[in-house]
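Review form for a predicted model. The reviewer records the input and the model, then writes brief findings.
Reviewer: anonymous (R2)
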Amino acid sequence: MLTRYPERFGALLCAVPVIDMRRSKKLLVGNIGIDEYGDPDNPEDWAFLSEISAYHVAAPGKQYPPILLTTSRKDDRVHPAHARKMAAKLQAMDMKPISMSPPPEAKMPAKTTASEPPSRRSVAPSFAAPLVGTRMILA
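Model under review:
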């Protein structure tokens, strides 16, 4: 959504993303996506993947909405390098994304529970609310 339709969003929340389709098969169990998306080492498949790989499509000079990138150091399927590389690229393009890395014991940062600290549960709403013109109410 960030690189395909940036004009449609006031802010984006991107949790545990697979963003670099060129290197995804080299990170953790990234090769499981080959059947679905193709092999980035195959030139024909890369022609398709290069168009949907947000890391490769993001370009300087384009206007992108603010983005909250989250990752996990313990997710056994998606390497944190995806979110970290994208944050670094966007920052190099003078965009100011917010990159959050949850505590090491967190398995899947996209899921939060009532037992987690309120500060962790409120990160996404706190980020998005002022950007999209809403007030945040925490119960």
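Findings: The chain has a mean pLDDT of 80.
Further findings: The CA atoms of residues 60 and 92 lie 9 Å apart.
Recommendation: see findings above.
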